User: Which sequence fits this backbone?
């Protein structure tokens, strides 16, 4: 009976992590499309919290290295793309894409930080 309750709790936590990831992506897309001015602070806070949830609940020990490599590649490349798009004048679309890349960075960075700390903990413990 205890195994079933533990498995059910794990499944619920996994679903929360997956939905946090989906909501974060959708929120970043919507805000980037409809953003006309500076991104509100509450959006950045929500994306950061969702990123933390994803880092805690959605990445297993076995997935941590691929996740960290992908996160690092993403953060470096998308920051460069966002900076380039903000310089290039493609009218509205470049501003929206730059905003989208920046919002995704705000979303992914906390998840990567949490996974990195957990990976360091596991390395130090072993």
Assistant:
């Amino acid at each position: 009976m205890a195994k079933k309750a533990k498995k059910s709790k794990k499944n619920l936590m996994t679903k929360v992590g997956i939905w946090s990831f989906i909501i974060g992506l959708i929120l970043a897309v919507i805000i980037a499309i409809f953003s006309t001015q500076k991104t509100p602070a509450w959006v950045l806070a929500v994306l950061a919290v969702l990123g933390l949830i994803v880092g805690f609940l959605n990445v297993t020990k076995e997935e941590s290295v691929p996740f960290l490599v992908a996160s690092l590649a993403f953060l470096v490349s998308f920051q460069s793309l966002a900076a380039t798009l903000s310089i290039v004048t493609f009218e509205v679309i470049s501003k929206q894409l730059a905003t989208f890349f920046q919002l995704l960075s705000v979303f992914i960075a906390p998840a990567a930080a949490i996974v990195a700390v957990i990976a360091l903990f596991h390395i130090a413990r072993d």
About this structure: Residues 2-125 form one domain. The radius of gyration is 17 Å. The chain has a mean pLDDT of 83.
